[in-house]
Specification:
Elements (H helix, E strand, L loop, with lengths): L7 H20 L12 H8 L16 H6 L18 H13 L10 H17 L6 E5 L2 H16 L11 E5 L4 H9 L7 E4 L9 H13 L4 E7 L11 H11 L2 E6 L21 E4 L1 H4 L7 E5 L2 H8 L31 H12 L1 H24 L3 E3 L7 E6 L8 H15 L5 E5 L2 E7 L7 H5 L1 H13 L11
Parallel strand pairs: 2-3, 2-4, 4-5, 5-6
Antiparallel strand pairs: 1-7, 6-7, 8-9, 9-11, 10-11
Helix pairs in contact: 4-12, 5-12, 6-7, 6-11, 8-9, 14-16
The structure holds pyridoxal-5'-phosphate.
Length: about 475
């Protein structure tokens, strides 16, 4: 018997413990802290230990209690970053996908999985108004942005054989950091990312874009692509996609839309995303606003040929022997990845279980939560909004009082205190140089009651930071 053998009876028993742990976790979410009371020393003490030479058997699972205790639970009151809430039907599908262990390289390696994923991504494209788009699931928005820009580069300034040549990519100053990272990795260089100052609405101005392209051409540089953001990470601003698409058509530039945070909201409010279907490539993150467990990113594109130009480079051992177009299909011809997990199973099962209407309504609820929070912030004299609320992100801050003239430091201290209190979790953003508290709603568990707690929590934290007595966490603000 192989030393790794596990009997079916043992598997059932371990799986039952896992489901119990998962169900208990879900049962306790309402009362759970939004962030655990934990330190680096604590996690190091708990988990940094030599791996055992002899297996512990079922006792190995005993440590999972501590893993859960020192983790951030997916509570209804977590509003940091852009973090989806981990839909449980999808989580169960992930277990099955791992047991099934398909390698979703090509149909010949994973017939059902490849067929499901191809159909799924095209259906999502269709549901967003991007009929005829195809694509593939990947690790997240950063990978999708990298692949979208690789396609842009290979279409406009081919580099795969002889290496990269200089080309300029345009985006607003609110573009996500993954765009600069992609520029570096693609050999275009971050200096070739032309960041155009977003105005007071935090959107890319098409006229400023047109002028920047003209200036670069006049200076002998080669414009290559535009990245429009459909939901900026800071404030959720949606660039004017239709107008940017016109500039791209007129200037023959590739249009990549970074919709990792926001574009899935087109399921609920398509009117806010006019022009989305004009993209050449489009990044989406089902692990954000389709509530899927990590990881689940998605790159859609209109031209399969462009994807193949960028990514097809197949060793003989992987070449398909089939002539049937379904059976000959290989994701590795259209993606950076070769070995790929069956990510589609969770998304497919979750969408089939709940139906698209349930996701549209969950997204609408998130949009309402953001509007309600913005209204509560506006009503509270001590607080001020720092950006228009375009989607589900709300950026605001405490107005500095007499005792705290440095609004940035004061608000950073307030944020630390909010997190320590553990009731709600907010993250931060910098908007026009100002430190903002930021709540982002992409959480299907959040209720109106949860949202109503945010302003009182922030005001209480502000009082605790302010005094009486020496300010907490705020020695000099
Ligand atoms: C606009 C935008 N683009 C890209 C990303 C990167 O996505 P991921 O974290 O899935 O790589 C994010 C993440 O928040 C984002 O908000």
């Amino acid at each position: 018997m192989n030393a790794l053998h596990l009997s079916v009876a043992e598997f059932r028993s371990l799986a039952a413990r896992m489901t119990d742990l998962s169900a208990d976790l879900l049962a306790g979410l309402d009362g759970a802290r939004a962030f655990p009371e934990v330190s680096g020393a604590h996690t190091t003490r708990a988990f940094v230990a030599p791996l055992p030479e002899e297996g512990l058997g079922a006792a190995a699972l005993d440590a999972l209690g501590e893993v859960l205790a020192l983790s951030r639970a997916p509570t209804p009151r977590f509003y940091g970053y852009v973090l989806g809430s981990g839909e449980p039907v999808a989580a169960l599908a992930d277990l099955l996908a791992s047991v099934l262990n398909q390698n979703v390289t090509a149909w010949r390696s994973a017939p059902a999985a490849v067929t499901i994923e191809r159909h799924l991504v095209e259906s999502i494209g269709g549901a967003l108004g991007c009929d005829g788009f195809t694509g593939s699931l990947c690790g997240g928005g950063s990978m999708a942005n990298l692949m979208g820009l690789a396609m842009a580069r290979e279409t406009r300034l081919p580099a795969n054989e002889a290496g990269a040549r200089p080309g300029i990519v345009y985006a607003s100053s609110e573009a996500h950091m993954s765009i600069g990272k992609a520029m570096a990795l693609l050999g275009l260089g971050r200096e070739s990312l032309s960041l155009i100052d977003a105005g007071d609405d935090y959107r890319l101005d098409p006229e400023a874009l047109r002028a920047a392209v003209a200036a670069d051409r006049a200076a002998g540089r080669t414009p290559l692509a535009v990245v429009a953001t459909a939901g900026t990470v800071n404030s959720g601003a949606i660039d004017p996609l239709a107008d940017i698409a016109s500039v791209c058509r007129e200037q023959e530039l590739w249009l990549h839309v970074d919709g990792a945070y926001g574009a899935l909201a087109a399921l609920a409010i398509p009117e806010a995303f006019r022009g989305l279907a004009a993209a050449d490539s489009l990044s989406l993150d089902p692990h954000k606003w389709l509530y899927q467990p990590l990881d689940c990113g998605l790159l859609l594109y209109r031209s399969q040929d462009a994807a193949r130009r960028a990514f097809s480079f197949t060793g003989d051992y992987a070449k398909s022997l089939a002539s049937d177009p379904v059976e000959a299909f290989a994701f590795f011809d259209e993606s950076v990845e070769l070995s790929r997990r069956f990510r589609a199973l969770k998304l497919w099962l979750s969408l089939r279980y709940h139906g698209l209407a349930a996701f549209r309504s969950a997204i609408r609820a998130d949009l309402d939560h953001a509007r309600n929070l913005a209204a509560a912030v506006s009503r509270a004299g001590e607080l001020e909004l720092l950006a228009p609320v375009g989607l589900s992100a709300v950026c605001f801050r405490c107005r500095p009082g007499e005792r705290h003239r440095d609004a940035d430091r004061f608000n950073a201290a307030v944020l630390r205190r909010v997190i320590e209190r553990g009731r709600v979790y907010l993250s931060n953003a910098t908007l026009k140089g100002r430190f903002a508290l930021r709540a982002c709603f992409v959480n299907h568990r959040t209720t109106d009651r949860d949202v109503a707690e945010i302003v009182p929590e922030v005001l209480q934290a502000a009082r605790e930071v302010s005094g009486p007595g020496p300010p907490r966490n705020c020695a000099s603000c």
